[in-house]
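User: Predict the structure for this protein chain, please.
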Amino acid sequence: MDQITKTVNSFLAFIVGIGLICFFSFIFLLASAQLNDSLLGTLLADVAGETARTARTESFSYWGRVGGKVAAGLGYGPQQQVAGSQSQATPVVVVVGTTPAPVQGATATPVPTNPIRSSALSDNALLSWRGLDANSQRLPLGVNLEQVRQQAELALQQNSGDMLAVWLTKRVQACDPTFNQLRDIDYRDPTQAASVNALANALIAQCNPRLFFAYARSRWADITTWLSNAQPQDIGEGQAARLADESQASRLLAGLTLSIGEKVEGPARDRRLQDHVNVTILPLTTFGLDSVDIQLTVGTLNTLLGENKWDPGGTYNVPGEFFPVNPPEPALPSDADLATPVAPAVVAPVAESNVQSAGPGKYVVQSGDTVYSIARKFNVAPDALVNANPTTLGANPNYIVPGQELNIPTP
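Assistant: Here is the predicted structure, written as structure tokens:
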């Protein structure tokens, strides 16, 4: 008997536990939409780290929408109404960067949902736009436009009224045409070098001076031109090498990584300054740049890497900066850019005492009217009312809005 009692009690405790879990889960759904922007939520995200912050935001964005729907179903929060209905909600689609067109019969132009200056996500996107990490330290590879775009889009998924995310999206979209041209042009073609440099300079000046992609493409185009101008030189023993003007090597190779190969084939001998060595500039795959094979003299390698501080088969970094040390700050949003949009004044409904017929056989639709209620009011058949208004009601008899003028047929 005691065993049966224990079993029943355990089962009841299990049922109660499941009920409590469901109850608190329901409370969480209702609160999660607001928790995401709370001080507690932000502090927890800072402790958890950037990856946890992103996962948390995506999760809250989803559950916040679910919670909002649950709250709306229980009668809490704003609800939208459609003419002729007191409960059906009409979804509003907001296109980033544009003002939604007014809906026929609406009393006010819609504005983005919950407009705010910024959020944790858009603030992070702004850091990326500035070429900084979460600790405001410079990113070694500069600005990644695609990362900025994704962060801004994620912020807008959470709240379409995030004005900082809207601003960043517009900035990235303005950069896209020049960026795409620079990405698609063949930097390995010496005849395209001038175009590559022009596009890179435009991207730096007009888009973002911390877009290191532009600096990298420009440098690779200069290296290609440098090597294309190399002239054949006799290196003895029936050997020849195409050697570029090595006085430019320090400038063009600064900050790059070189893989040192063997000396050009010939009799074995000690290193002489005029001996030629096969060298490979390692690729920059992040920026879509391939490796480059060149030949440099021992003297030039000594100048670049230090005398006798390199050996064939090794990989060495050339001293100097490949990217600018302290590029200027990119354009930042002004207060006007982040000002939350103000909804236009709502047209006051017409008082019932002022409702007048627009003329003999005419009627102006009022709030709450339907085809059937108007037909009953004038003692006419609904079909007759529809047939008397082919332009207004012919396409969709169920769609009428306040302010429409209808023809009233004779009973």
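The mean pLDDT is 74.
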